[in-house]
């Protein structure tokens, strides 16, 4: 296959440049190679590079693809991006919304307000076109490189062959100057849902296909000012689809999404006059320009194993969900957050290789939860039998008049991170009276600390968080230095810190992982217990 | 007198809804209708109170 672009670029960020590796005459060695420069590959490179681990990213294009795809980026995803220093521009550019309206036919069923909890640095989520999200990650990579982070990106480098070995991987790469080979200790496959790496290794990717197509159009409203709300129609009276969604993005762009059935003639449906026919029925008298259109179908599936020796899969290559609930890119960012520190410790010889098996254990658990949630939303939006259609409409009917039926209406649930309850790295909960939401395995909930926020203080290393409790300032164990973050309940006059971490306890000691998930918690510092929990969190036991 | 509960009262609503739909998997429309009838009778017996049942019948009827 020639090296032609498979999609148009929104931003050309890393033009092809010949590398000395291509003239070496033998496969040059790299510790870590990432295949694929989508959001997940870029974040992976950023995470490793910031730790000082040399990382080479190969992408078969020269930048970010056109077409927005993902638009909803959730709080946890932004918190992760913030740890990498990339969230500021995302928040500045993104649209924050709170009000959602649900319609059935020609009636409004109900309206909701997300009423986000106070005391978090980031909103529940923002709407932002995926190309911006990727560009902001890339720009952070550039800033980190300027500070010396060992990250290299090679555009128009298509991986064409992957040969796994006991202690590494050899890659065959095609460039505009012809082929060359590279060798890596570790290969992270972030090459998307159609992952050529996965296919080349003959690995499974099983799950459920949903027999429906969705036509998406990003349009720029040129006339009246529309409110910043999410509108979702079940069986809309304007008949542009079996369901329809209207959602705001930055730059005055709106995402419209129509459910148009399974057997459709894609080329026909994508003709501008046909797209306009649907849009005009939905938005009579509104002036707009069409910015981007696409038809997608979807599947909910995952690989049985995310780690295959020295080849590790992350993002869409490992798992795919329906877009309802925005769990694609959001969960991929959590993969990176999870894998980054583990691979960092293993590459530096600070943890055994089997720590990486916990990446599969934890993120496959997360993928299953995401698949479950997005499958449920999809089943509600696109009922597949007469009886489920009857129940769906009964729920909508009742929801119009009775509050009890509203929680049953499912047009996509907010993407939230999972808690690694009972998994191998998760330690003990020895803090009586403490709240459930910060139990071992959970991602730390943020809390305000005067002029800043808790998560900023945690950073990206193992830390010992103490609240109204004593502990040594640092702890040396297994070649790691654990830093103490010493807080008092008085540091947060709003009381959120105490409510989220103490409950009825009078003091607490939390051991927290580099990805800001809780390992274990105690009422007071116990040296032996802390060391045991740390060993467990690094898979040393 | 107890009143019919019309505010949210089911923990894990998504899980409940999925189980409800799954209970109908593979049934014909007629079998589904019969399944629903049995389910209503079982739930009605659980409620017991005739006054509440009368209110439930009223609430279910009101559809335009
Ligand atoms: C309509 C739609 C709406 C969505 N909405 C949301 C949302 O609101 N929120 C959300 O979180 N997610 C959403 N998603 C999902 C989100 O877009 C994906 O989860 C996300 O793009 C996955 O990122 P990735 O980096 O894993 O893969 P990709 O973005 O697919 O990137 C893969 C990269 O690998 C490169 N590549 C492939 N093969 C090779 C090769 N052989 N050699 C070198 N490079 C290669 C590709 O060119 C590409 O750059 C949506 C998806 C769709 C389709």
UniProtKB/TrEMBL annotation, chain A:
Keyword list, A-Z: Oxidoreductase
SUPFAM superfamilies to which the protein is assigned, alphabetical: FAD/NAD(P)-binding domain
Top-rank taxon, per record: Bacteria
GO annotation (BP), single: 3-(3-hydroxy)phenylpropionate catabolic process
InterPro entries on file: FAD-bd, FAD/NAD-bd_sf, PheA/TfdB_FAD_monoxygenase
One function term, GO molecular function aspect: 3-(3-hydroxyphenyl)propionate hydroxylase activity
Residue span, FAD-binding domain: 31-365
PANTHER family in the record: 3-(3-HYDROXY-PHENYL)PROPIONATE/3-HYDROXYCINNAMIC ACID HYDROXYLASE, FAD-BINDING MONOOXYGENASE
Descriptive protein name: FAD-dependent oxidoreductase
Organism the protein comes from: Thetidibacter halocola
UniProtKB/TrEMBL annotation, chain B:
Pfam families in UniProt: DUF2783
Alphabetized InterPro entries for the sequence: DUF2783
UniProt protein name: DUF2783 domain-containing protein
């Amino acid at each position: 296959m020639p090296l032609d672009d498979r999609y148009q670029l929104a931003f050309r960020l890393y033009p092809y440049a010949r590398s000395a590796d291509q003239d070496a005459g033998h496969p040059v060695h790299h510790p870590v190679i990432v295949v694929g420069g989508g959001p997940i590959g870029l974040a992976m490179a950023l995470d490793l590079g910031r730790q000082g681990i040399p990382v080479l990213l190969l992408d078969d294009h020269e930048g970010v693809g056109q077409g927005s795809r993902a638009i909803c980026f959730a709080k946890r995803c932004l918190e992760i991006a913030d740890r990498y220093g990339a969230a500021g521009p995302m928040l500045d550019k993104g649209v924050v919304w709170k009000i959602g309206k649900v319609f059935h036919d020609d009636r409004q069923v109900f309206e909701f307000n997300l009423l986000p909890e106070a005391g978090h640095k980031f909103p529940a989520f923002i709407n932002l076109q995926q190309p911006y999200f990727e560009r902001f990650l890339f720009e952070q990579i550039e800033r980190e490189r300027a500070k010396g982070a060992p990250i290299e990106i090679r555009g128009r480098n298509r991986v064409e062959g992957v040969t796994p070995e006991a202690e590494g991987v050899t890659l065959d790469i095609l460039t505009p100057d012809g082929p060359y080979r590279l060798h890596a200790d570790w290969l992270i496959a972030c090459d998307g849902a159609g992952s050529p790496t996965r296919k080349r290794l003959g690995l499974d990717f099983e799950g459920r296909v949903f027999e429906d197509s969705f036509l998406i159009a990003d349009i720029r409203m040129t006339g009246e000012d529309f409110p910043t709300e999410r509108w979702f129609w079940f069986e809309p009276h304007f008949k542009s689809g079996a369901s329809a969604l209207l959602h705001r993005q930055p730059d005055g762009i709106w995402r419209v999404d129509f459910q148009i059935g399974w057997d459709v003639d894609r080329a026909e449906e994508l003709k501008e006059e046909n797209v306009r026919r649907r849009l005009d029925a939905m938005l009579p008298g509104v002036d707009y320009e069409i910015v981007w259109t696409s038809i997608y179908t979807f599947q909910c599936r995952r690989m049985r194993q995310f780690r295959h020796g020295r080849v590790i899969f992350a993002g869409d290559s490992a798992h795919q969900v329906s877009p309802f609930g925005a769990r694609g890119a959001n969960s991929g960012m959590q993969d990176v957050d999870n894998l980054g520190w583990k691979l960092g410790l293993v590459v530096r010889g600070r943890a055994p290789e089997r720590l990486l098996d916990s990446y599969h254990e934890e993120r496959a658990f997360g993928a299953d939860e995401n698949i479950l949630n997005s499958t449920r939303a999809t089943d509600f939006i696109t009922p597949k039998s007469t009886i489920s259609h009857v129940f769906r409409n009964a729920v909508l009917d009742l929801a119009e008049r009775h509050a009890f039926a509203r929680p049953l209406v499912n047009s996509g649930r907010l993407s939230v991170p999972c808690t690694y309850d009972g998994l191998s790295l998760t330690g003990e909960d020895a803090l009586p009276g403490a709240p459930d939401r910060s139990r071992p395995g959970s991602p730390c909930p943020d809390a305000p600390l005067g002029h800043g926020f808790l998560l900023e203080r945690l950073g990206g290393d193992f830390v010992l968080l103490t609240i109204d409790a004593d502990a040594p300032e640092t702890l040396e164990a297994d070649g790691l230095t654990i830093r103490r973050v010493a807080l008092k309940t008085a540091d947060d006059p709003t009381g959120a810190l105490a409510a989220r971490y103490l409950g009825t306890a009078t003091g607490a000691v939390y051991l927290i992982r580099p990805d800001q998930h809780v390992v274990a918690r105690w009422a007071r510092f116990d040296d032996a217990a802390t060391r045991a929990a740390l060993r467990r969190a690094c898979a040393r036991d | 007198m107890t009143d019919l509960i019309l505010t949210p009262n089911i923990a894990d609503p998504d899980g409940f809804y999925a189980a409800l739909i799954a209970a109908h998997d593979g049934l014909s429309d007629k079998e589904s209708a019969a399944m629903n009838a049995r389910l209503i009778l079982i739930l009605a017996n659980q409620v017991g109170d005739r006054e509440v049942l009368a209110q439930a019948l009223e609430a279910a009827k009101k559809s335009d």
